[in-house]
């Protein structure tokens, strides 16, 4: 699958270059989606996730949740490209390279290979972002992404084998892994690059990180944490919990102050941080909530990451509503479950989660109102085609359906 | 610490200084070679002569990949692109330049690497302190290069050095059985070199010969 995705990217870029407009290029990830869906339906996958596998070396074993995430993310990326007002083909190559790397992230049985895949994804994103929007934010993305991947690679050698007493080594590996995760997930204090980049690159360029790589890192972190001995697991999970909650509040406030075309990307960063906090709680409810949050954004991200245009306001209003956190929207169930996990962990975590949830609700409410009043439209954007309008209705409708049956959706996609 | 371990550490420090100071079109090749020279003695101490294969091959292939990718990119008739050697943002005027800042940062990493080598055990006790120090300090040099990078070339240098250092650390803790993983990781060095070389070649391809000649003349003045 890694090879298929990489080849699809090269092929899509070649098609985009050949047609000079990239209008047909989105067909390539669509074909890849079909292949991925076929894989999901015909193969049961590994019954467990890779962390539980005992094989060593460079074997790649894709678990059920990873397979589901890849299929859903591939569809999300394809829809993002369909809904993008302008495409140049380069975003397709990067999406497929990041997809291939994320496949390796989700299926690596060895921490070193996990870090290697993360480094490839971070590098591809950095080069693309710097090329399309050179500036301090994209340079910071390259720097911090590189440092994050370097931390994962460096920590891999220090993860102690289970059963022994290696206190300094376990703490060191847990702390360095946590720093690497914070860097790559855009968590405070290393996450300023994510918000900055979101304001400078287009949705189709930001999607491979927000809808594919960051969720893949979160899902793989769920498998990684139990592998660590207690000395490493505790700092790792606590870092994700604390910095995830802080990032949620900070990014939520930033989203409230952001201009219309950057608001959703900052809300996505905040929600991913809340999902990271859910992973850090180590409670089953918190982790299920993280999955549902990710699924919510995989549905509405393709629509809201792209800039607003005339003819898509109703769909965008519906999408904003589904991320508001009002019951029974999918964001409500996701945040509610993570909040349960936070409550079981510490009262302070619950208070922070409630605060952040309130901020995100207000941000989404403002987005809904502005989309409904057509106040967020950008001048000069091309009018959406009939296909794009239909795709926008599809993603908004699916998000609402997920809110009505979140457990079934999460089970169907992630197998949880 | 024995004389041998001290020597390993000194070689690592010299290698790290080269890694943070080297700049220009050949930076990836030179930095990777410096990392390999810093890491190879440690790898030999742990895994015998075969242990040095991964860092040496990784560095050699990185230098080769830069060259080949640049030549390939120069031959293809396409548009000009991003120059990996040009800083992404204009550096602010300051008393100290980027090399000085990187040098100061890697000097600050010395106590950290020393602490880790004395307190964190990867393999067989005190005899491996110099080995751990070399891997950790080279890794810190790569992280420094990445964190303070101003160009794509800087990021590529940092990535290739980190890959080589992490590969040696991985084989140090896991023994020869883990050399496949480390070999795969060392592949990151030529990959980052190829990306930088490709971008350099693509950028140079976009410059008309008369403008390139003008630039060279101005450079000589």
SS element count, helices of chain B: 9
Tally of strands of chain B? 0
Distance between the termini of chain A: 22 Å
Q: How would you classify the quaternary structure?
A: heterodimer
The largest inter-chain interface, given as chain pair and residues per side, is: A-B, 37 and 44 residues
How much helix is in the residues of chain A?
over 70%
* Strand-pairing-aware structural class of chain B: mainly alpha
Order of helices and strands of chain B: HHHHHHHHH
* Mean pLDDT rating of chain A: 84
Poorly predicted tracts of residues of chain A: 45-56
Sheet with the most strands, sense and barrel status of chain A: none
At a glance:
The complex is a heterodimer of chains A (416) and B (221). Chain A has 416 residues and is an all-alpha fold. Chain A has helices at residues 2-19, 27-42, 64-83, 90-107, 111-132, 136-156, 167-185, 192-198, 203-224, 230-257, 260-281, 284-304, 313-322, 330-345, 347-372, 386-404, 406-414.
How would you characterize the overall build of this protein?
The complex is a heterodimer of chains A (416) and B (221). The model of chain A is unreliable at 45-56 (pLDDT under 50). In chain A, helix 12 crosses helix 17 (406-414), helix 13 runs antiparallel to helix 15 and helix 14 crosses helix 16. By secondary structure, chain A is mainly alpha-helical. The two termini of chain A are 22 Å apart. Chain A is globular, with a radius of gyration of 20 Å. Chain A is built from 17 helices and no strands. Chain A has one domain (2-377, 384-414). Chain B has 221 residues and is mainly α. Chain B has one domain. The radius of gyration of chain B is 19 Å and the shape is flat. Classes of the chains: A mainly alpha (416), B mainly alpha (221). Chains A and B meet through helix 5, helix 6 and helix 7 of A and helix 5, helix 6, helix 7 and helix 8 of B.
